[in-house]
Amino acid sequence: MTVAIIGGTGPQGKGLALRFAQAGIPVVLGSRDAERAAESAAELQQQLDNGAATISGSDNLGATAQADELVILAVPYSAHDATLEQLKPALTDKVLVDIVVPLAPGNPKAVEMPPEGSATEAAQALLGEEIPVVGALHNVSATTLNNLEQPINCDILVCGNQLDAKKKVISLLQSLDVKAYNAGLAESARCIEAITPILIRLNISKDVPFTHAGISIQPPRH
Ligand SMILES: NC(=O)c1ccc[n+]([C@@H]2O[C@H](COP(=O)([O-])OP(=O)(O)OC[C@H]3O[C@@H](n4cnc5c(N)ncnc54)[C@H](OP(=O)(O)O)[C@@H]3O)[C@@H](O)[C@H]2O)c1
User: Fold this and answer.
1) Sequential DSSP letters for 176-200
2) Positive or negative, the Cα torsion across 128, 131, 133, 134?
3) Per the count of CB atoms within 10 A, which of 14, 108, 161, 214 is most buried?
4) What does the pLDDT read at residue 168?
5) Is the CB of residue 70 less than 8 Å from the CB of residue 97?
């Protein structure tokens, strides 16, 4: 099942591509520049064993067309709506996985949510209910994803208005050996997206003796 990553030449997209390919899931990286996507794909493939799935590259529309079903949006928030407008005709019968965090311009320790409430909700409004949008992967650090020596150090909160679409995304994420939880409707993204600047704040704080922290859901300890 080929997964497309739009904006896949950035650190988050590349890290996800490495993890999926290592888990045997083919990936097509999307970029505004097909050549850049192909170069990034070749670089990433070199980091993987022969047993890994293929990472290829294409322009963003071509990558969307090549996805069997799941298309991950990994562009900066400033490019969120314009990229979705461009991709919308190619997203019929697919699920859009929105990982974009609407960080405040010039201040990564805060979010500036769109009028719809969150980037995930803005995507759902823009695409219409026929194209399911699932919010996920907002709280995972690119550094962690790109370091294949380390397991992914967090759980993933997944939200969206269509249960089947969320189940497909949760099943994909479980292939990365992480716990993924159904965290409710798309409006839950208001909280989930807003966790990221808190993690960024902690990770750059001198009072916290580690970086690239994640969040996890802990059962009670007896
Ligand atoms: N980095 C993290 O640790 C992290 C963690 C959690 C969530 N996220 C979210 O994941 C997304 C990607 O993060 P990132 O750090 O990889 O971002 P990034 O490096 O800033 O951008 C990713 C890619 O988006 C494309 N892009 C840049 N400007 C664009 C524009 N104006 N229009 C269309 N495409 C554009 C670029 O690809 P081309 O030039 O090849 O088109 C770029 O390589 C962000 O929304 C971020 O909030 C990131």
Assistant:
1) TT--EEE--SGGGHHHHHHHHHHHH
2) positive
3) 14
4) 98
5) yes
Whole-number pLDDT of residue 117: 98
Residues 6 or more apart whose CB falls under 8 angstroms from that of 18 comprise: 44, 47, 48, 55, 145, 146, 148
User: Separation of 117 CA from ligand 1 center, angstroms?
Assistant: 21
Query: What is the enclosing helix (H) or strand (E) of 121?
Result: helix 119-127
Q: How is the beta sheet containing 55-59 ordered, strand by strand?
A: 55-59, 27-31, 3-6, 70-73, 95-98, 133-135, 156-160, 180-182
pLDDT at 124: 98
- Please report, in angstroms and rounded to a whole number, the separation of the first and last CA atoms in the chain: 41
Q: Are 158 and 189 in contact (CB under 8 A)?
A: no
Q: Ligand 1 within 6 A of 20 CB? A: no
Atom of ligand 1 nearest to the CA of 32: 41
Name the closest-CA residue to atom 42, ligand 1: 10
Which two three-digit tokens encode residue 165? 């679409």
- Of all protein residues, the one whose alpha carbon is nearest to atom 6 of ligand 1 is 138
Taking 70 as the pLDDT cut, the residues of the chain under it are none
- Location of structure tokens 């939200």: 159
CB of 9 closer than 6 angstroms to any ligand 1 atom: yes
